[in-house]
Automatic annotation (TrEMBL):
Signal sequence bounds: 1-25
Keywords in alphabetical order: Acute phase, Signal
GO CC list: extracellular space
Protein name: Interleukin-6
SUPFAM superfamilies linked: 4-helical cytokines
Biological processes per GO annotation: acute-phase response; cell differentiation
Record function comment: Cytokine with a wide variety of biological functions in immunity, tissue regeneration, and metabolism. Binds to IL6R, then the complex associates to the signaling subunit IL6ST/gp130 to trigger the intracellular IL6-signaling pathway. The interaction with the membrane-bound IL6R and IL6ST stimulates 'classic signaling', whereas the binding of IL6 and soluble IL6R to IL6ST stimulates 'trans-signaling'. Alternatively, 'cluster signaling' occurs when membrane-bound IL6:IL6R complexes on transmitter cells activate IL6ST receptors on neighboring receiver cells.
Span list, region Disordered: 30-54
Organism: Fundulus heteroclitus
GO molecular function, one term: interleukin-6 receptor binding
Cross-referenced Pfam families: IL6
Family the UniProt entry places it in: Belongs to the IL-6 superfamily.
InterPro entries noted in UniProt: 4_helix_cytokine-like_core (IPR009079), IL-6-like (IPR003574)
Amino acid sequence: MSSKLNLRLLAAVMLAAALPLCVKGAPLEVTPTDLPQGEASGEEEEDRRISDPPRDSNIIEIWERVLKSTESHQQEFDEEFQGNVKYDLLDKDKPRSFPAKCPNCTLSKEACLQSLAHGMLVYTVLLKHVDREYHNSSIVAAVKAGIPQLITQIKAKMRNADSVAAPTSSEEQQLLKELDRPDLFYRKMMAHRILRSIHIFLVDGKRSYQKWMSKKKPESFYISKPKHQEYTKTVA
Ligand SMILES: *[C@@H]1O[C@H](CO)[C@@H](O)[C@H](O)[C@H]1NC(C)=O
Ligand SMILES: *[C@@H]1O[C@H](CO)[C@@H](O)[C@H](O)[C@H]1NC(C)=O
């Protein structure tokens, strides 16, 4: 009985000892946005963030590098299956968890960026399945190298970058569980479905991204506002 108590005590002590570690790690994540005293300099910070290196040409170059790699997927697929499995099959029976096209990209620039970053984070998880089935895929290597860079640059352009979070570990498990079946052919086809789907997502996403980025700054929208005020004044 006393040994049970000791165990419980030990667990409590260990938990208490582990806690400071967790807390110590937390401020690291919080610091970039946790600048309450510097509220006034916030705008300067924002301006600098927008004009600094993350340039569009850069991000487009990364995007194109990844796409060049995913474009070779059909050829690899046809070589592997020797024409016995049709490539078009990959567009069928796609799990709902695969973000196909950028879901919110027509709504607004912010919604588009959020949706892009979110989709890329989901694919980061799904790629683990591809990795499991095809250890040395050069496509996976290229996508894994490029996607974190794309996410960083997209988040730098978002007003509320914190709103996009990576899937939690239980969400991650859930995503991967539905792909992990005993049937080898099923697993391989799923791996190929992911590569096919990520290619479509990136093609579509790049187009949407460029469309929003080429739009005039939102300030121009407000030019019409004073006119409207004048009008209401004269009417009144
Ligand atoms: C798309 O927009 C809806 C409504 O604003 C939101 O609930 C959803 O989370 C968004 N999806 C993504 C992937 O950003
Ligand atoms: C795959 O990678 C592993 C380790 O990096 C290597 O040992 C193996 O030879 C590679 N296989 C192929 C088919 O390239």
